[in-house]
Amino acid sequence: MSDTAKTAFLHGGLLALLFALQFVLPAYHHGNLARIMVLASFAIGFNVMFGYTGLLSLGHALFFAAGMYGMGLSVQILGFSPAPALIAGLIAGLVVAALVGALALRTVGVAFMIVTLMFAQAGYLTVLYFGSYTRGDEGFVIQQAQRMLWGIDLSDPANRYFAAFALFAVCLLTTLALVRSPFGKVLIAIRENEDRARMLGYDVFKYKLAAVIVSGTISAAAGAAYGLLFGYVGATFASVQYSIFPLLWVLLGGAGTVLGPFIGTLFMFYLIDLSSGITTAYMLIAGVVLVLLTLFAPQGLAGELRKRVWRGLP
Amino acid sequence: MTKIIKAPTRRSALKTLALGGGAAAAGASLPLWARYAQAQTSEPIRIGFQVHRTGIGAAYGRWYDRTTTAAVKRINDAGGINGRMVEVIAEDDGTDPKRGAEVVEKFATQHNCDIGFGTLFSHVVIGSAPRAGELKLPYFVVSEGHHVASGMLNRYTLQPGITDVKSQVIAMAPFVSENLGKKITMIYPDFAFGHDHRDYFSEAIAAQGGEVVAQIAIPPTETSFTKYFPKIPRETEVVYHVMVGPAVLTFVKELGEFFGPSRPEMFGFIDSLEAVDMGSAGLEFLDGTYFWEGNPRYAQADQTSHDKMYREAVGVDENGASVSDPRDVSTYAHMFGCWETLNVVKAGMEASGYQGPADRAALIEAVEAMGDMPLSDDHPQGAKRFNGKTHQVFGHQYISKVEDGRMNVVHTTSIEDTLYPDEVDYTAQSL
């Protein structure tokens, strides 16, 4: 079987499985998987920058929140319906990513991490500062009546699952196409050896900026969808822990793999969920598992798959 | 807290039923738990307790947990609800709205809880309530946020055991203007909790003929406050402060150093110092200042038998600390809400003849029909009045003066002082 056929089989198979699962999963896991698919989309966005371009951002919550607030405030204040509100969220994410990218990419390495972290913190404080619009740390509810997309009630579990699946499928397939395209190959080249990519004549800054914009926009799409599907917009999603989560998910699942973000998000979600049923020290269990994975599968779960089973895994 | 009894999974249930069915066909009976499921009324009533065990709300969560355990023990010792025992299924939400929503889903769809209960921090309530409404899970919060009565939430979310911040704040204005002064400077954290105080108190004090002469918002990341104090106008007669979080001790210490021996009157909300020992170094400056208390931390000279019983049941001494560790100070001004909410749930279930999840709508209607609740062992903080339209309870508020490191109640508001016009009618929403 050719690499292309294997790729189509594997990724198409995952999407087919996720589509089919909605008909058989019990209610609890059905709801969980919808949430996981949205969060995995966030991680996919992060992976474009970190996994494929080698840019470690510690401020991705800013993009997630830009999408969430772009959507939420346009519903709350401007009275937008969900479709234009989603577009507003995407535009907000795109603009913020372009601005942050244009400034932060003047730095490299540790400085880039710190600058992205600072931008995200500034974003978080901005949400709090404009509390009369955002309701600050408390956040606000997107009411059920405001979540009717073309007559479809997004608060209904089946509709929510399908919307989350559609978002995830679009993000997954977009990333897959991206990393297999010449553009994606250049990003990987930059990750592997930036100087060599520059020497070959590529405008590295331009490519990295494009990666930040794609990454930020995908993350913003996830943020906008999260707010719309689960009915809540809040400053917590702009806080530093939501910058760390996608890093964890991607590291666990496998940075620089298309499936890694989903696997990492799924794994982490159920690790917390199941261990919290066993002990109140569930974060300790999560920590121990993370240490073990770092020791024995340093490239993440999908990274190990690539190393041991199929070296051509995209 | 009772231990979690794991609900059988769908797969194990089907497997067991299949085995049981086969056995029945062979002349044997169904397995024990399957018979148990047939006789649903003998199952315990499951209360999903959304508890802040980790995160910023952990200090509150610990005491909410203890109060809930004590309240459930008392209910079970008295025969349970409608003849059924009450089982608490606790899940940590990490004081996080995302996890909070997941926990609510878990209560409804995995643990098969009859209700969700106990959430405190407003952002967690607001993040979780939409899911409770969608899942039609009665969600009894103990938050004191104005979110319920503001109309932001839904018909399945109720706050019958603790008053909201709006009623607390507006009830303070008459006392402050009549006893402390009419020119007030407010110092508050620059986020929603502080903004609520700023907005509600400014309006209420103006209605009393007073005036807020300065509003000083302090960013939540601030760790030192000295640069803000020169902004306090000289004409200030009262400083109204509601700082919260780990920096509060620094705040009080620096405020004391700024004013020295000659200070204006001081009025604060005990939220700043919940779970903090009043004997902590630096708090001497608070002597002679006033605090709002939801429920007086120190047992008062006129302590009611109900407060005495409640303290003993929860394990709190007369100074508001754990009987087993005097340094473990309770969140006494808030945690009574868990006790009272569970008693409201009991009364609602009994009034509606609650049998199981099919009766959730009837439970909501039964609680909405409640009105006055007298001071009693069920309501040891004081009498209450529930507003079925806004899903919010109203009650007495206490103002205490710090004297020799303990807080003595100097004024108790009437319930009428705490009322404000309805902002929503949840009963108009469908169930």
From TrEMBL, chain A:
It is found in: Cell membrane. It comes from the Bacteria. InterPro entries: ABC_transp_permease (IPR001851), LivM-like (IPR043428). GO terms for cellular component: plasma membrane. GO terms for molecular function: branched-chain amino acid transmembrane transporter activity. It is a multi-pass membrane protein. Keywords: Cell membrane, Membrane, Transmembrane, Transmembrane helix. The chain crosses the membrane at residues 36-55, 62-80, 86-105, 112-131, 161-188, 209-235, 247-272, 279-297. Its main location: membrane. This is Branched-chain amino acid ABC transporter permease. It comes from Sedimentitalea arenosa.
UniProtKB/TrEMBL annotation, chain B:
Residues 44-405 form the Leucine-binding protein domain. The keyword Manganese does not apply. InterPro entries: BCAA_transport, Leu-bd, Peripla_BP_I, TAT_signal, TAT_signal_bac_arc. Keywords: Amino-acid transport, Signal, Transport. The keyword Signal applies. Belongs to the leucine-binding protein family. It holds the Pfam family Peripla_BP_6. One of its GO terms (biological process) is amino acid transport. This is ABC transporter substrate-binding protein.
